[in-house]
Amino acid sequence: MAIFKEFSKQKRDRSAADRQRHKELVKEKIKKGISDVIANESIIGQDKDKKIKVPIRGIKEFRFVYGNNKGKGAATGTGKEQKGQVIQDQRGQPQKGQGKGEAGSDPGEDIYETEITLEEAIQLMFEDLELPDMDQKKYFQTDTEVMRKLLGYQKKGIRARLSKRKTMMNRIKRMKAKGLDSAALSDTNESFPFHNDDLVYRRLQVDTEEHSNAVVLCLMDTSGSMDQTKKYLARSFYFMLYTFLQTRYENTEILFIAHHTEAKEVTEDEFFHKGESGGTIISSAYIKALEIIEERYNPMLWNIYAFHCSDGDNFTSDNKKAIEHAEKLSQVCNLFGYGEIKPDIGFSWSTMLDEYKKIEEENFVSLRMRTKESVWPALKKFLTKDKSNTLMD
Amino acid sequence: MDWVLKDLAEWNDKIEEIAQDLGLDYYPQEFEVCDYHDMLGYQSYVGMPSRYPHWSFGKSFEKQNTMYKLGMGGLAYEMVINSNPCLAYLMIDNPLAMQILVMAHVYGHNDFFKNNINFSHTRAEFALETFKLNAERIRSYVETPSIGYQGVEKILDAAHAISFHVDRNQRIVRLSEDQQRQQYFHHLNKEKENWDDLKNEEKEDDFIPALSEDLLLFILENSRFLQSWEKDILRIVREETLYFLPQMETKIMNEGWASFWHYTILHKLNLPPAMHVDFIRSHNQVIRPHVGGLNPYHIGFHLMQHLAGTKNSFEEGINPQIFDIRTIDRDSSFLRRFLTQDLMEELGLFEYEQNNGKVSVSNVSNDFKGWKEVRDTLIKQVGTGSIPIIKVKGVSPLSNALLLVHEFDGRELELGYVSKTMEHISTLWSQFPVHLETQVENQEVTCIYEKGNFRVESNSEEKESA
């Protein structure tokens, strides 16, 4: 006599916690994987809805395993195998990994390839970043307005928002799928009850409107010495910064200043897509920025951030003036970041980075970007709380 | 659902009657009816109703759930636990014919667990309790503020990495070094027998203690700075591995045995014709060959059926010898003893060779010499044969490095995995270095994990001077 235990509808999702932890680990992996992808992908001007593929190696459980570069195995065949026959596509056999030390191909190997949109990727990347010291002028922050409206549908919700119409439609759909209709049902006395899956609820969209009083000034060197590679790096940097601000701070004002020997305020489109030429007078950009701040953004009321990308080839006579104004700019800004773009590793004799070492303002950060891979760490450096005035290479 | 619980109970009684007539000797049986979600859950915890928390079980669930949803299988027909009383799960969505098949199958497993000698140390009476208590202990560490989830996870991750490196065959008594030495001297000092004149003379210095393959135990006993809770986690992981190990070592036999019995019992059950057809369809689905792979059900069933002598009809009666085989063998000995060339040809077994991505047939079963190669390769890869043998050589006196040897058998280790696994070992070895001797591309090498770095050094000196 065996004992039978009846099916119990009471569910306890026992693996929930372990699944949650696994998800966390996968997410960490994605995050690591994404910065590689972003660095390599040419993302400037890309549509934000563009899907990019992020390959993630599954969270592996490492053990001692046999590799597949050499070795024998036995398998069931069709009985028609001939000695020496090459089996090219062996079903059920693991695929070959590439190269030594690469991921093995033991059965425990799982490679996930997630497809996420650029925007999601950027959000994942930016998760830990923020505009530093944003809080200090909170006092002046305009009130947030909250609007509620019903928008869309969802499977779960409260009773009050049950969409009777949609729910009824689902029931009818299910009924039809079973080959029944209401006429046939009313003949018999059988009922066709609602199922949990039928229920549809209205979704409540919470609209918040924030008026954060922050402005970000993007200053870019567009002089002749800024060749294609340098401009690409500068634009990558600003593109990421811009996307970050847009996703994280809905109403932050951003304005663009392009400069060579003289500076002017330009539109977003001009800033990212137009090339210029000519010499470089860095101070012109700073003066322009200071002018704009004085006219429109009172430092008492606004959080001001300024970033400047240049290759550092300045007219030597302007250096002193540039430093002076950089200091002035630092005084009115929450953060002033200077990124010097030097793709060539060779010695360069006139570089602003050395000059800028003289600046003692605490909220001035300067660093160097050499390759596209260094753009992301640079941005990270600017936007993390810890910003000691050190050089980064 | 074309059945109620009463139907199952009725069919179960019929099955049990036949099973007992046929000589099956099993633990009391308990069946639990569950749905696919429960089943996936049980599967990811290897059937155990309680298990300690670890993300790998969550991963296992997700993987099997995805596979199930994509229609790639991933869902077991049956799940039986080696416990007394024996616990098995029946899926609520299965039709009656399938339930009958599964129940008959379960009695086969149940009998195997109770009688096969490899399971004798697994203490079936305490199995569920043991796992539950282990889970509670680990949970208590998680809840200890100074340890926490992260602390436990770190040790569990590391312990899982080497969990299979325990004594594989619990039937082989492990002798201490002193006992081995005694045995050796005893052998040296005894009077010479006829054959011994032919042997080379042995000297006292020749004594080399056998290396232990129980890496987990060695770390438990010798790691210098492991805290008691860390050791306890290792002990738990080791205990649970030793519980599951016999199931790995007897996979082909166990599934073959259970399949043989469900098939035999069902032929004696006088099923209604429609159900009989359903049953045969399910049966064939289970034991079908996986071309390019190995289906333990397929190989096990054919061998068992052949040995029982019931291949052509059930009239002949079952050869009682199979009960002895079920008791004393494990997959490796079973295949070595009973897998003949004829059977191998019938099963279509062949051997393949991998060489840098190219896979070619190296031996086939209908070859008068080659079939043995195929068989031996198969034996090498069954049970824990797919897990490299790592032995403990000792501890280097100066650097306190843990010295390990990989018993090389022609199959190379995956170095990427070696480095990560050694990192885990180093965690358990209190961050002291770990060395592993192995072979890569016909060269003896030592893999060294030291201070967060992994490197591979060649052992041959000629190579270095060259």
Core attributes:
heterodimer, A: 393 residues, alpha/beta, 10 helices, extended, B: 466 residues, alpha+beta, three-stranded mixed beta sheet, 10 strands, globular, UPF0229 (chain A), UPF0229 protein KMW28_15275 (chain A), vWFA_dom_sf (chain A), Spore_V_R (chain B), SpoVR family protein (chain B)
Structure notes:
Chain A: Belongs to the UPF0229 family. Chain A: Residues 88-97 have a biased composition (Low complexity). Chain A: Residues 1-24, 71-109 are annotated as: Disordered. Chain A: It holds the Pfam family DUF444. Chain A: It comes from Flammeovirga yaeyamensis. The complex is a heterodimer of chains A (393) and B (466). With 393 residues, chain A is of the alpha/beta class. Chain A is built from ten helices and twelve strands. Chain A has a six-stranded mixed beta sheet, sandwiched between helices. The longest helix of chain A is centred in the N-terminal third of the chain and has 25 residues, at 16-40. The radius of gyration of chain A is 30 Å and the shape is extended. Mean pLDDT of chain A is 75; it is low at 89-109, 136-140 and 386-393. By secondary structure, chain B is of the alpha+beta class. Chain B is built from 18 helices and ten strands. Chain B has helices at 5-21, 36-44, 55-69, 96-115, 127-143, 148-161, 177-189, 215-222, 228-249, 251-267, 273-287, 296-308, 321-328, 331-338, 341-347, 370-381, 415-428, 461-465; strands at 29-34, 79-81, 86-91, 349-355, 358-364, 390-395, 402-406, 434-440, 443-450, 453-458. A five-stranded mixed beta sheet of chain B has the order 6-7-8-9-10. Chain B has a three-stranded mixed beta sheet with strand order 1-3-2. Chain B has a two-stranded antiparallel sheet with strand order 4-5. In chain B, a hairpin with a 2-residue loop joins strand 8 and strand 9 (443-450). In chain B, helix 4 crosses helix 10. The longest helix of chain B has 22 residues, at 228-249. The chains are: A alpha/beta (393), B alpha+beta (466). Chains A and B meet through strand 1, helix 1 and strand 3 of A and helix 1, strand 1, helix 2, helix 3 and helix 6 of B.
